[in-house]
């Protein structure tokens, strides 16, 4: 299991790998067989992976939005894509994002 934990602690996982690790963590937690401290550690790992997955999806969503914009005359418009842009950098779209509060190390408050 140490091998699985080391893999899930990477912050540069591909989206599919992060989802796979997240599913494994959920499965481990659902069994109820882990000691409390290990359950909390796995939960914290899951939160980090979930945040990474949301960031990846948000980045893809922004790219799609930029690629599908149409001007008033029906022509395509393009806007340079900034992969480093965060949701806080963009103007609000009127939809509140659900947030999980974690400290800078990814631990839950």
Architecture overview:
The chain is elongated, with a radius of gyration of 18 Å. It has a single domain (2-78), classed as Helix Hairpins (Orthogonal Bundle), CATH 1.10.287. With 109 residues, it is mainly α. 51% of the residues lie in helices and 0% in strands.
Provide a concise account of the structure shown.
The protein is an all-alpha fold. Helices cover 51% and strands 0% of the residues.
Tell me the strand percentage band: under 5%
Average pLDDT figure = 75
Structural class given helices, strands, pairing?
mainly alpha
CATH architecture: Orthogonal Bundle
Radius of gyration from the alpha-carbon trace, in angstroms: 18 Å
State the helicity in percent bands: 40-55%
Q: Under the CATH scheme, which class?
A: Mainly Alpha
Order of helices and strands: HHH
Taken from the alpha-carbon principal axes, the silhouette is: elongated
- According to DSSP, the number of beta strands is 0
Helical element count? 3
Query: What count of domains describes the coordinates?
Result: 1
Biggest β-sheet description:
none
Low-pLDDT sequence parts: 1-9, 93-102
CATH topology: Helix Hairpins
Give the end-to-end Cα distance, rounded to a whole number of Å: 26 Å
